[in-house]
Design goal:
alpha+beta, Beta Polymerase, domain 2, Methane Monooxygenase Hydroxylase, Chain G, domain 1, 3 domains, 7-stranded mixed β-sheet, 12 helices, 7 strands, disordered N terminus, CorA_cytoplasmic_dom, CorA_TM1_TM2, transmembrane helix, magnesium ion transmembrane transporter activity, MgTranspt_CorA/ZnTranspt_ZntB
């Protein structure tokens, strides 16, 4: 039994070694899929299940996968990045609509500070940039679109953790800005000095550019309201004032968001100087600052025009109210004069209705009747003449 048991153990060891070698070859085969086949299998940004996207300078395309495990299975070097933070070339891992479990997992893998993890997990809305040893954390609030939210302050922030050789970003509700940045990298990759700071700059730049449609919409509303001041009916002035109040509130919200962006950009430029970033990124940041200042100036001008339009509408409303009040007073005055003219008729009728001899009782003609009627009409005419001379009519 001894020699037989030893033979069995030897065969089992060789079988395990053979299966391990086969599995390793299959894994290497899966990890060395040519980029076109990888793109064909996973490059589907419109897929409802795609949540993880990975860009690296070692590949010509972006990898998309529904989970981190699937992404690691497609691209083998990702194991070394997740295990030890080592990767050849620049990388960018973007997570869309990450769950709390995904956030905690990535925080452990990349050794992220608990404060950063908490900000991402609770969806911190304050815009800021913070330096944590090997990385800095950027939190930016993107502009809202009219079809998505009712207020630009309800949109979820875009979070980016920028390392020296890579970027880890988190987006919620919309991947629009990260998709734009990836497309920009694809178009200018041949002549672009790509760094992690540049990716962070590109995210900030795309978020700032997202405010342009909102500002154009505001300026269009301002133009419409200014042109409609002289032709707006009195019944529609209330609706026009409501639109002005709504637009002014939107202007204030956009200005607040842009002011927050100014502080973040200033802090980012200071961190770039400390970390020794390229001069190209610093010059790009100055361009963003100029763009933000231009947008703030346009919003301030729109705010002034809205204020003038509001004053014009209020002035027209006051004028219409005064005119209507004068018309009501004039109508009541005429009614008062007419009632005053009718009062003598009631007095005369009341006098002849008392216990006196009825006029014309013993007369066969109607002269008495016409005499009384003529006296009443003469009294009414005299009252009207007096009212006309005294300008009551």
């Amino acid at each position: 039994m001894g020699p037989l048991a030893g033979l069995r153990q030897l065969l089992a060891a060789r079988s395990a070694s053979w299966h391990g070698l086969c599995a390793e070859r299959e894994r290497e085969k899966a990890f060395t899929i040519p980029p076109p086949e990888v793109e064909k299998a996973y490059n589907d940004p419109e897929s409802e299940t795609a949540q993880f996207s990975f860009f690296t300078t070692q590949l010509d395309s972006v990898l998309f996968a529904p989970s981190l495990n699937s992404l690691a299975l497609v691209y083998g070097p990702l194991h070394s990045l997740l295990d030890g933070g080592e990767h050849d070339g620049l990388w960018w891992l973007d997570v869309a609509d990450a769950s709390d479990g995904d956030i905690e997992l990535l925080a452990r893998l990349f050794d992220i500070h608990p404060l950063t993890t908490e900000d991402i997990r609770i969806r911190e809305t304050r815009e800021k940039i913070e330096l944590f040893g090997p990385y800095y954390f950027v939190s930016l609030r993107p502009p809202q679109q009219a079809e998505e939210t009712a207020s630009p302050r309800t949109a979820c922030n875009v979070y980016a953790i920028v390392f020296r050789q890579g970027v880890l970003s988190f987006t919620f509700r919309s991947r629009r800005h990260t998709d734009h940045v990836r497309g920009r990298i694809k178009d200018h990759r041949s002549h672009l000095a790509l760094t992690s700071d540049w990716i962070c700059y590109a995210l900030i730049d795309d978020i700032v550019d997202g405010f342009a449609p909102l500002i154009n919409q505001v300026e269009g509303c301002v133009e419409t309201m200014e042109d409609s001041v002289s032709i707006t009916r009195p019944d529609d002035i209330g609706l026009a004032l409501q639109q002005i109040y709504k637009t002014r509130r939107q202007v204030q919200q956009i200005r607040q968001l842009l002011n927050d962006k100014t502080d973040v950009i200033r802090c980012f430029a200071r961190h770039c100087d400390i970390l020794g970033s390229t001069i190209q990124v610093v010059s790009y940041l100055s361009d963003i600052q100029d763009h933000v200042l231009t947008m703030v100036s346009n919003l301030a001008h729109s705010e002034q025009r809205l204020s003038r339009s509001q004053d014009k509408y209020l002035g027209q409303l006051s004028f219409d109210s005064t005119r209507m009040r004068n018309q009501i007073v004039a109508t009541l005055s005429r009614l008062t004069v007419i009632a005053s003219c009718i009062v003598p008729m009631q007095v005369i009728t009341g006098l002849f209705g008392m216990n006196v001899t009825v006029p014309g009782k013993n007369s066969s003609g109607l002269g008495w009747w016409f005499g009384i009627l003529g006296g009443i009409l003469a009294l009414i005419g005299l009252s009207l003449v007096i009212a006309r001379r005294t300008r009551f009519l």
